[in-house]
Structures are given as C-alpha cells and as structure tokens.
Amino acid sequence: TQLEQSARAKLEEAASSNQVIVWTDAKDITLSRPMFKTIWQPALVALSRCIQEESQVVPPRSCLDGLQCAIRLAGMFDMTTARQSFIQALTRFSLLQPESLSTANETITPKNIEAIRAMLAVSVTCGNYLGESWVVMLRCVSKLEVLQMVGQGVPDIELNSNSKNSNKKGK
After folding, report:
1. How far is residue 93 from each of residues 47, 118, 129, 133, 149, measured CA to CA in Å?
2. Which of 31, 37, 38, 118 lies most in the core, judged by the most C-beta atoms within 10 Å?
3. Residue pLDDT, tens place only, 119-132
C-alpha cells in the first residue's frame, strides 16, 4: 500500500542519514487498536511456539510476559476473541485446564509454574478486562487448589467424591 511504502521510505531515509530519530508514543486508543487487531493472531502463534519449544533465543518468561500484555490489551480494546485466545494459550501452558490434567500422569515443569504465576498475575492486574473469561481463570485456580490438596496427601478418590457431593447439593 501507499502508506506502507511511504513509511518504508522515511525509515530508510532516517537510517541512511545521521539524524537523531524522535519516536512519538501513541496515546490515542484509536491509533493502537487497529495495530493490535492486525498483529494479535501472529503474535499469539509466535509467543505460543516460543513457549512450547522452549527457545534458547527467547526465554519462556518473556513470552509469558507478552501473553500477559496481550491479554490486557485485548481486554482494554474489548476484543473478546483475541482475549479468549490469549487466555486459552496461557491456561494451556499452566496445565491447569480442568479437562487437561490428570494428577497421576502429567509432570509440571518450571515452565508450567511460570505460566501459573503469569495466570495469577493476569487475574490480579487485568481482572476488570477479563469479562466472561473469569470462568476459565476460576476453574484453573480451583484445579490448582485440588493439586495442592493432593500434594498434602488428600487422596484423589476423596477429592472426586467431594466434588460429586457438592454437585448433588447444588442441584
């Protein structure tokens, strides 16, 4: 497009000259939202892949920070699909999605612990922007509590019977 060509030309011109480049912060949401709308899907893929492959170039902690920022931006811009996608990625790396972790056959790695910390940080700092995604976060926190109880020696059978009894009482 013409805008892209103009921007490239100005960047090349600035790079070839000895001028001091002055950057202007975009503080208007009308400028930032379209940019985020354009890049959120490739950013999600890139961040997820770096976390999944444990790249030596980009540490997983940096990628988790990127997911946290993306969740906040998606919430601020009221972009439901983007917010849910980033939250799903974060909860997937935490291994705390209720349907995805059986306490008997999964090993939690340091990367997963960092994802749990990031998930809790998102809950605290971005709570006003989570919308209906709070349900996912609360389920993950509930699964974390179950794992803590298992770690303290409460048998898994006892935990399952307690959850069934609480479901019957709710009906």
Report:
1. 11, 10, 21, 16, 21
2. 118
3. 999 999 988 888 88
